[in-house]
Write a structure and sequence with these properties.
Elements: H1 2-20, H2 34-45, E1 50-51, E2 56-57, H3 64-67, H4 71-80, H5 94-107
Antiparallel strand pairs: 1-2
The structure holds heme C.
Heme C binds near residues 49, 60, 74, 84 and 100.
Length: about 110
């Protein structure tokens, strides 16, 4: 509970910093920010998914290193969920969804 709060808070602070620093550093192309995406992944997704780049080894969902999802698929899954995977719309902002989806598709080279 406390850890969850801390993770959530650090996510919010990260997002606030990103907004504040808009245009300076990071990827300012309107696409996802991978650093923020990795934080989201470790907070929300690591328990269910294996992803070497994030050091996670969850086994509820597919191993993402093998699945190599495209950006479009990752955005769709994170937004709407599927089967046992919950939808994150409402829990994550559209930007956070884009960040985590960009992160996953980039580090697995899913494109
Ligand atoms: C409660 C466990 C759980 C959590 C939390 C979870 N997932 Fe999933 N995820 C799954 C399951 C199960 C599937 C398989 C769904 C299906 O196709 O039936 C899946 C599928 C996916 C897929 C599609 C893989 C493919 O190629 O079919 C992606 C991408 C994905 N998850 C990313 C994420 C991301 C990013 C997060 C965090 C925002 C996340 N997941 C959180 C369980 C989870």
């Amino acid at each position: 509970m406390t850890l969850r709060k801390a993770l959530l808070l650090s996510g919010l602070i990260g997002a606030a910093l990103l907004l504040a620093g808009c245009g300076t550093g990071g990827k300012a192309s309107g696409s996802g920010d991978q650093t923020n995406g990795q934080k989201q992944f470790q907070a929300k997704c690591a328990g269910c998914h294996t992803l070497a780049a994030a050091g996670s080894n969850g086994t509820v969902g597919p191993n993402l290193d093998d699945a190599k999802p495209t950006l479009a698929l990752a955005i769709d899954r994170v937004t709407h969920g599927k089967g046992p995977m919950p939808p994150f719309k409402g829990q994550l902002t559209d930007q956070q969804i884009k960040d985590v989806a960009t992160y996953v598709s980039t580090v697995t080279r899913g494109g």
